[in-house]
Automatic annotation (TrEMBL):
Biased amino acid composition, Low complexity: 444-459
One GO term describing the cellular component: nucleus
InterPro entries: DNA/RNA_pol_sf, DNA_pol_Y-fam_lit_finger_sf, DNA_pol_Y-fam_little_finger, DNA_polymerase_eta, HUWE1/Rev1_UBM, Rev_trsase/Diguanyl_cyclase, UmuC
Protein name, as recorded: DNA polymerase eta
Residue ranges annotated for the UmuC domain, each copy included: 14-253
EC category: transferase
Annotated Polar residues bias: 464-481, 559-578
Keyword Signal included in the entry's annotation: no
Domain of life: Eukaryota
């Protein structure tokens, strides 16, 4: 259920940037002959030409829709180009699209706090950048406004085509505007500059919404697509919401929205204005009631999180119709493949970004034989995540068996699985400064090898045998003996001790003399991690698999995340929530910064050495003139 967040005192400038038909654009960049052509990206599937997951605006002009399959799209638009999503391990491989998304994020993050919301969506908090522009180089001459900014759609302004650009230029420079509108105007100019840069540097177009909060920015970013931006001045919020159907709001797409329609007769967000806060609280509880009362007035305090990396990694596959899995051996075969990919992804996240995932969750869709319409769901299951492919495979299979056991309720009946996915979540940063130490300890030969197997295990790769693995203090990773397993409390205490003893032994064995300060640093970092894990409730006193809160939280995340697990055959990455970067600028060692991935490096270097003043007077090419206009 949505919760109202306290609002900030000062007006903010928030943008939501959404790439246009993203996978199509990535494919068009790979094959420029597709540019300007009706094109769709198709999910790997041999049934009726595969499912469309992204459709170019040219193809949309012919009536092609995402809900269609390839064969139907060909009927509607015989000239359409259908591009298959790359395939690896018998399923969609989204790495190409993911890294294209990262290129864009690296550019957008240069102007303010940036939250990667999905594979192709970003929120930006441009408040500081807008304030700075207002102080240093406020827009004061309509003729000097960047063309792309002058093409903004500003809610509440007359949209007469012949006069529109002139009106927008005048609005962006109004000397008598209040400070909120002035900031918004600067935000619109900054977003236009960023969109032009994204196009020039990546060849991708995007659309954006600019408003005083995340909710409004998101609601309008798709209003004028492709390659356009929409601005929401405070004065037009009420009119905009008055006609906005409740179901258009992300959080109202499900049961809550249906209840508003059925129980209160509310069809648009504006209709909510006729209910008092007390009435809404009475109906939906204190938090949700207040949240509804506020959104009716366009109020939302939700912050843009400072996060450029995904909040979880997920790999999934669907098995429709006759492809459903009906025995443990086939489930194991697929789970092994999904886990192998997941393992590679978390390993590369660790190597590149120094982040560790803590929780493994398994989701499945299952039906019992002869009970296809049963509403009972397969319970998602979670356990602490152990690094190393075979461990993840082993744990995922145990999670599956445990879930199936609960699902079948002791009935001896057949079943069939129509979807399987594994997710690594609760990802957090290794404290700053430890990355160079990790590299030192692992040695250059292990750069792409598993870095933190559990302390009790035999390394999977014999070539790693001589390496020392620096792992955060992590009780779950030390496997207890059988007798210890019977006593949860004892398990925690003993294993923690064993872990640190093993750790100390290995570290002292491998570090050259004179490295005591590094050891001290390491133990400090580990205890910080330990404390964090403890406070996150992840150090469990009971061994084994836990179904639990964790799983339902993971499910909530999955449900709410835009773009993670979007496709039916996918490998999604969810943006992270609570684990923001924990750097203190003064504490950053420049040597460590050099080791970070480029986009993060750029951001941190930006803090240390602020970027040059924006040249707001510069005039640039318009985005629509960059490529020939779409044919429809
Ligand atoms: P969207 O942003 O929903 O759509 P889009 O970028 O293709 O088009 P638009 O211009 O209307 O925003 O999704 C981003 C990408 O995510 C999309 O290009 C393909 C992928 N995707 C799936 O794989 N499956 C899905 O069901 C959806 C909705 C998207």
């Amino acid at each position: 259920m949505p919760v109202a967040r306290p609002e900030p005192q000062e007006p903010r400038v928030i943008a939501h940037v959404d790439m246009d038909c993203f996978y199509v654009q990535v494919e068009q960049r790979r094959n420029p002959a597709l540019r300007g052509q009706p094109t769709a990206v198709v999910q790997y599937n041999d049934w009726k030409g595969g499912g469309l997951i992204a459709v170019s605006y040219e193809a949309r002009g012919f009536g092609v829709k995402r809900s269609m399959r390839g064969d139907e799209a060909k009927r509607v638009c015989p000239g359409i180009n259908l591009v298959q999503v790359p395939v690896a391990r018998g399923k969609a491989d989204l790495n190409l699209y993911r890294s294209a998304g990262s290129e864009v994020v690296a550019i957008l993050a240069s102007k303010g706090k940036c939250e990667r919301a999905s594979i192709d969506e970003v929120y930006l908090d441009l408040t500081d950048a807008a304030k700075e522009m207002l102080l240093q180089a406020p827009p004061d001459s309509p003729e000097e406004i960047l063309i792309e900014a002058a093409k903004s759609n500003i809610l509440g302004l007359p949209s007469d085509a012949s006069e529109k650009e002139k009106i927008v230029r005048a609005w962006l420079c109004r000397p008598d505007a209040d400070s909120e509108d002035k900031l918004l105007a600067c935000g619109a100019i900054i977003v236009a500059q960023l969109r032009v840069r994204v196009l020039e540097e990546t060849q991708f177009t995007c659309s954006a919404g600019i408003a005083h909060n995340k909710m409004l920015a998101k609601l309008v970013s798709g209003m004028h697509k492709p390659a356009q931006q929409t601005v929401v001045p405070s004065s037009s919020v009420q009119d905009f919401l008055a006609s906005l159907p409740v179901k258009k709001m992300k959080q109202l797409g499900g049961k809550l929205g249906s209840s508003l329609q059925d129980d209160l007769g509310v069809e648009t967000i504006g209709d909510l204005l006729s209910f008092t806060e007390e009435k809404l609280q009475e109906q939906y509880g204190v938090n949700t009631g207040t949240w509804l009362w506020k959104i009716a007035r366009g109020i939302s305090g939700e912050e843009v999180e400072d996060r450029l990396l995904p909040k979880s990694h997920g790999c999934g596959k669907t098995f429709p119709g006759p492809k459903a899995l009906k025995n443990s051996a086939s489930v194991k075969g697929w789970l092994d493949q999904l886990c192998e990919e997941l393992s590679e992804r978390i390993q590369s996240d660790l190597n590149q970004n120094k982040r560790i995932a803590q929780t493994l969750t398994l989701h499945a869709r299952v039906s019992k034989e002869n009970e296809r319409d049963s509403v009972k769901k397969f319970p998602s299951k979670s356990c602490p995540l152990r690094y190393g492919t075979w461990k993840i495979q082993e744990d995922a299979m145990k999670l599956f068996e445990s879930g199936l056991h609960d699902f079948l309720e002791y009935q001896n009946t057949g079943w069939s699985i129509t979807s399987l996915s594994v997710t690594a979540s609760k990802i957090f940063d290794i404290p700053s400064g430890t990355s160079s130490i990790l590299r030192y300890v692992k040695g250059p030969s292990s750069a792409s090898s598993p870095a933190i197997p559990d302390s009790s295990s035999v390394p999977e790769d014999p070539s790693l045998d001589n390496n020392v693995y620096v792992t955060p203090s992590n009780e779950e990773q030390c496997e207890p003996s059988t007798s210890e397993k019977e006593d949860g409390k004892k398990y925690s205490a003993i294993s923690a001790k064993q872990c640190s003893a093993n750790e100390a032994k290995r570290i002292s064995k491998k570090f050259p003399e004179g490295t005591s300060s590094i050891l001290k640093f390491l133990s400090r970092g580990q205890s910080a991690l330990h404390e964090k894990r403890k406070s996150d409730g992840l150090i469990c006193s009971h061994p084994g698999l836990e179904s639990s809160l964790e799983a339902s939280r993971a499910e909530e995340h999955n449900a709410s995340a835009q773009g993670a697990d979007r496709s039916s055959t996918n490998c999604g990455a969810e943006p992270s929530g609570s684990n923001a970067w924990m750097f203190n600028v003064e504490d950053i060692d420049p040597a460590v910064v050099e080791e970070l991935p480029p986009e993060i490096r750029r951001e941190i270097q930006g803090w240390i050495r602020p970027p040059k003043q924006p040249n707001t007077k510069r005039r640039g090419s318009t985005i629509s003139s960059y490529f020939p206009p779409a044919r429809s």
